[in-house]
Specification:
The structure holds two protein chains of two kinds.
Chain A (H helix, E strand, L loop, with lengths): L2 H26 L7 H8 L3 H20 L9
Chain B lengths: L10 H29 L73 H29 L7 H32 L1
Classes of the chains: A mainly alpha, B mainly alpha.
Chain lengths: 75, 181
């Protein structure tokens, strides 16, 4: 495996680990931090927040599932 | 002369690191903004008191039950006079038995299918345009990753929308039908 993918995987692992830790602590009410649902609910009160989250969702779907395809699934 | 800093990275490194860093910064900024608004709810301007439960909502979602403004955990619920009592994050609002949990619509609040469709359409169009702007800026400003990149981004996300939108509409219709029965 090349050097940069390993670093990339490690960084993603740390980021997602931190995210899941945060959510776990919030759901367990250990530290009193708000859950991601609370944060996203606040973000989605604003139109630009909804656009940004929808754009993020769209990008994730395109990047992981659609990218490399062509319109109407033409190979 | 050898380039310094991030310019010393190879193109593959930059194409892997820069989008990841940019996406991380965008996501963390959004989360930070949400956290800030959660801990610092916007006060109603003096003389223009907002109705209960609408103090920090610039745009109301139509026909959607909303909770009262959240209170940071560990703090006393600082509720200004005339506003609904705060609800701790992650907890259901205290609703008296026998009352509906949904907030009734205000006098000027849009409700119904048309308003919901309008909000969904604005979210879809705004999100799509925002993503296209980011992708075009990335392509011309960061890395020209390939000749089919822009076409793939335009058509791929449109295909994703074409697949997801009918499912979303069908599920929304089914959920509404189930709520009625």
């Amino acid at each position: 495996m090349a050097r940069y993918p390993l670093i990339g995987y490690l960084v993603w692992l740390i980021l997602f680990g931190a995210l899941f830790t945060w959510e776990g602590l919030a759901l367990a009410r250990v530290t009193g931090v708000p859950s991601l649902s609370d944060v996203f609910r606040v973000i989605m009160r604003y139109p630009f927040g909804r656009w940004a989250l929808f754009a993020l969702w769209l990008w994730i779907g395109w990047h992981f599932f659609i990218r490399g395809w062509h319109f109407l699934l033409r190979a | 002369m050898a380039p310094d800093g991030i310019l010393a990275l190879t193109t593959a490194d930059r194409q892997a690191l820069i989008p990841m860093s940019a996406g991380y910064l965008i996501l963390m900024s959004a989360l930070a903004f949400g956290l800030y608004r959660l801990y610092h709810p916007r006060e109603a301007p003096s003389g223009a008191e907002s109705p209960p439960g609408q103090g920090e909502q610039p745009e109301q979602a139509p026909a959607t039950p909303r909770r009262a403004p959240a209170t940071p955990p560990g703090r006393a619920p600082a509720t200004p006079p005339g506003r609904a009592p705060a609800t701790p994050p992650g907890r259901a609002p205290a609703t008296p038995p026998g009352t509906a949990p949904a907030t009734p619509a205000g006098p000027g609040q849009r409700t119904g299918r048309a308003a919901l469709a309008r909000q969904i359409a604005s979210t879809v169009i705004g999100g799509y345009l925002l993503l296209m702007a980011v992708i075009v800026a990335y392509y011309f400003g960061v890395a020209r990753v390939g000749p089919g990149f822009l076409e793939s981004a335009l058509t791929g996300t449109a295909l994703l929308l074409g697949l997801a939108a009918p499912v979303f509409v069908a599920l929304s219709w089914l959920a509404e039908r189930r709520d009625r029965s």
